[in-house]
Amino acid sequence: MIKKIITKILIWEAKSAIARNRPKIIGITGSAGKSSTKEAIAIVLENKFRVRKSIKSYNSELGLALAVLGLKTAWHSVAGWIQNVTAGFKEIFNKNFPKILVLEMGADRPKDLDALLRTARPEIGAVTAIGEIPVHVEFFAGPEEVAKEKSKLVKALSAGDWAVLNYDDEVVWGMREVTRAHVVSFGFGKGADVSASNYSASEEGITFKINFDGAAVPVKLKNVFGRQHVYAALAAATVGLKMNLNLIEISGTLNFYKPPPGRLQLIEGIKNTKILDDSYNASPLATHAALDTLAEFSGRKIFAFGDMLELGKFTILAHKAVGERAAKICDYFITVGPRSKFAVEEAIAQGMDKSRVINFSTCREAADHLKPLIEEGDLILVKGSQAMRMERVVEELMSEPARASELLCRQDEYWRNKE
Q1: What residues have CB less than 8 Å from 57, skipping those under 6 apart?
Q2: Averaged pLDDT, 142-166
Q3: Which residues, in sequence order, are bridge partners of residue 51?
Q4: What CATH architecture does domain 2-254 belong to?
Q5: DSSP state of 216
Q6: What is the predicted pLDDT for the residue at 364?
Q7: Contact yes or no for 242/184 (Cβ under 8 A)
Q8: Range(s) of the chain covered by CATH 3.40.1190.10
Q9: Is the pTM above the cut of 0.90?
């Protein structure tokens, strides 16, 4: 009851702050890549504007209100929430309120976007990726309903606004049909308004070119890995161009882009190994993208994979697809959770040696198995849904566990104490 009251107060404060200060709002939705895209857009715009972005992945109704007001969750502290309410009221009258808000907008269930859009209606709406089997599909009738819910972001845009859409994602690109806004696309496809070319990956990071209107600029993202981060950079460049920045400015600021912890971060592991830490969350689309990134590297490859949750009737199909892909890329496939047993079965069916594929009940057991298994030069990809806590595998295998609070996701007191 208290939480509901505080939530209503914070939402009212967020609406009031927006109404009084009239910031430009950039909303981001999709089934994967929201947080990385938010970070990239913010880094591009911060050089010229006073910007506030969603903290971590605050994309629920309460999280959005906190993001607008620049506050953090107080978890189970009543005193902390009261302090937030007080700070939120003061924020309404803040003379230095941000000129731009970059906000994640999640949709776990039907009508979630309706509530978020009542709090903050964007002038620029960016949609990252949906995929054939989106995350949280368990709570919808099917993938089409997920896409329909997320399309509400671009439906809410006015005729003078901008819809920034992923040209390479068929479902996202189809959203151009339901918006009144100007549409601008990004992607690797030649038909995209803002496109990427000359993509290259190494242990130092990724390089590519951003192309727009006949011009091209090189971008180097140090210690950043995977094509999904190119999409984040492209979306950010597209937004930057619509905010009257030029490609050279955009390229320069993107050099400082760093994805949040748990999104394909390369971390030094024990025994002189490398860990691709993608443990923040997992959907079918994001998991396949992570495996594609793993395939870009040479050497022995190990995949530590935790269950993908909230997939409903698509659970078996989605996990089998991961097993099929893992069999083609990985030397060892270590899984955690009952759902990932389907991935194990499929990997073996695809010809992977049974001795190199094993399922565990907990991430701790998986980590204990991996410690003697890994060898110098190995690359270990770690991924799973949030509740699987696969960051604990990374912590057990990283060479500097004392830096866990700096490098890993879910390191605040609430998550550290949560089983």
Answers
A1: 34, 35, 63, 104, 106, 260, 280
A2: 95
A3: 100
A4: 3-Layer(aba) Sandwich (3.40)
A5: E
A6: 95
A7: yes
A8: 2-254
A9: yes
